[in-house]
Design brief:
This protein is about 25% helix and about 40% strand. It is of the alpha+beta class. The strands form 3 sheets. Strands 1-5-6-7-8-9-10-11-12-13-14-17-18-19-20-21 form a 16-stranded antiparallel β-barrel. A two-stranded antiparallel sheet has the order 2-3. The longest helix has about 55 residues.
Length: about 525
């Protein structure tokens, strides 16, 4: 066996082992998803993407490891053959050294010296070869153990397609001062209940998320995949301490066909006309400021995306699709589904978006514009044309400083969370066929400044507001005819620190303030201090 070939094989093994260790170390420094949706942070999605790439590398290395084991078996066989050839020679040399000729001391001295000269290369070659094989075996065992460790995370499916489990186990501890619509992740402030305490304290894990992604076959040149994501914010069972036993709730579930420049997505997904959301681990069950200018919804939809590659690393994206025409009404029945106002129009909602992007300071610089339209039938021939125009932006100011946000203006788009969740106003008794209705005009948005203090520590500040046009409300409707209090404006602000000591561990501290203005009563304020700890997988 050639020594250079052995050295090359040994170098390859060491290189493979080093590659695994370097990638394992890099994983600890980089951010990774699991499981991601607009409900969660963009950084969580990035962490999940990096974990996916690492696992793919591990699968490739497992195949390379099998090949190296086969080559090692061949190397052992060659070593055994070499030892068989060296054994008789070594025995002959030992015999000559043990029984020198007494009548020829000079010749014996020469013979002994000659034996020493001949024995050293052969013996050292065998020892060196054995040492190299042993080191190769140790490297291979180390590599195999690392790959087996990663292989344990593989999820097997009945269809034998590759699957990936991801998500975040998230615990939030919070203290509120003031009343709100929801204790653990408030969306707007409410007047306190007479006689109740102004302060409250609690903890929850119902914002924990679990996601599953399936990688299917190639179809007409497109890579197929599907994903589903759940949390535990679907309500509470009516049992003692039921607030701790959150009911599982589907957030998103979609199927994708991805070509090089084109994608087709079908399923329940986040709004592609409102793709951004503030960074917050205090609010995943609903995106931060969901009722304060941040349009959102996990809506059944069918959309097509096409990407154009332009010079200087620029990309132009066109998106268009149809959506389930929802208007934010709660279900009429807990078990059976009936058509709501948007669905009673007999047509879906329509949406389009175009966006331009390019890298700048290591971040995406992007500008997007979108439009939405949906017709609603509120029975008795009362129709409302809901529409909205949106814009979104991400602007890296410096390498560590990024400005992002969204703005919208629309009418009757409570189905996207606009107007603080209200789509229309009733001018009288809602159940009277002669009562007139009006789509609620509103405008709002949010803006975030992200400062990356260190690779592991970031600071975020956000301002947001949703403004239902109070002048239109006062000239048309009153609370008594609209089921509950009509909110005119909802203002929010937050600041948080997010620390990621490892790619799969995060710690966050956030202070949030909500100031809500009803049209016909005084405003209310809620302050929340939220501490979060999450483990991503």
């Amino acid at each position: 066996m050639n020594s250079p070939w052995t050295l090359a094989l040994l170098s390859s093994a060491i290189t493979i082992a080093s590659f695994v260790l370097l990638n394992t170390g890099a994983l600890a420094q980089e951010t990774s998803n699991g499981p991601a949706s607009q409900a969660g942070d963009a950084s969580v999605r990035e962490l999940d993407s990096q974990v996916r790439e690492l696992r793919a590398m591990m699968e490739e290395m497992r195949a390379e490891n099998a090949q190296s084991r086969a080559e090692m078996r061949e190397l052992r066989q060659e070593l055994q053959d070499t030892r068989k050839l060296l054994t008789p020679l070594a025995a002959s040399m030992n015999y000559s050294a043990a029984a020198p000729e007494p009548t020829a001391p000079a010749a014996n001295s020469v013979s002994t010296a000659s034996t020493s000269v001949q024995e050293t290369p052969a013996t050292s070659s065998a020892v060196e070869l054995g040492s190299r094989v042993q080191k190769l075996e140790e490297s291979t065992q180390l590599l195999s153990s690392k790959i087996d460790e990663q292989y344990q995370t593989k999820v097997e499916t009945a269809a034998k397609y590759r699957a990936r489990l991801s998500g975040i186990v998230l615990m939030n501890t919070f203290r509120n001062v003031g009343a709100s619509d929801n204790l653990d992740f408030p969306n707007y402030a409410q007047p306190p209940v007479p006689g109740s305490s102004q302060a409250s304290f609690g903890a929850t894990l119902r914002q924990t998320e679990i996601g599953l992604e399936i990688f299917g076959p190639t179809l007409a040149g497109a890579r197929t995949s599907a994903n589903v994501q759940f949390d535990f914010a679907g309500g509470f069972p009516s049992t003692p301490n039921g607030v701790n036993f959150g009911i599982a709730r589907m957030q998103t579930a979609s199927l994708r066909l991805n070509w090089k420049d084109t994608s087709v997505i079908a399923g329940q997904d986040s709004l592609f006309v409102s793709p951004l959301s503030p960074t917050s681990f205090a609010s995943l069950a609903t995106p931060a400021f969901a009722y304060a200018g941040n349009l959102w919804g996990w809506t059944p939809q069918l959309r097509i995306e096409h990407r154009f590659d332009l010079p200087n690393e620029q990309t132009l994206t066109l998106q268009g699709g149809i959506l389930d025409n929802l208007d934010w009404e709660p279900p009429y029945d807990p078990f059976y589904r009936y058509a709501q106002a948007g669905e009673q129009s007999g047509q879906p909602a329509y949406a389009v978006r175009t966006a331009w992007s390019r890298p700048l300071f290591g971040h995406p610089l992007s500008l997007g514009m979108a439009g939405y339209y949906g017709r609603q039938n509120w029975s008795w021939g009362r129709y409302v044309d809901a529409w909205a125009g949106m814009t979104d932006w991400q602007i890296p100011i410096l390498r560590r400083l990024v400005l992002s946000g969204e703005f919208y203006r629309g009418r009757g788009v409570g189905g996207l969370g606009a107007g603080i969740g209200r789509a229309v106003l009733f001018g009288g008794n809602p159940y009277d066929a002669s009562t007139s209705i009006r789509g609620l005009d509103s405008a709002g948005g949010w803006s975030q400044l992200k400062f990356q203090l260190t690779p592991k520590l970031e600071l975020n500040g956000v301002f947001a507001e949703d403004n239902a046009f109070a002048s239109d409300v006062r000239s048309f409707a009153v609370d008594a005819n609209n089921f509950d209090t009509i909110l005119g404006r909802n203002h929010g602000a937050l600041g948080n620190l997010v620390y990621r000591p490892r790619s799969d561990l995060l710690l966050s501290a956030e202070f949030r303030r909500l100031h809500t203005f009803p049209v016909y009563s005084s405003s209310s304020v809620t302050n929340q201090l939220n501490l979060a700890m999450g483990i991503l997988f």
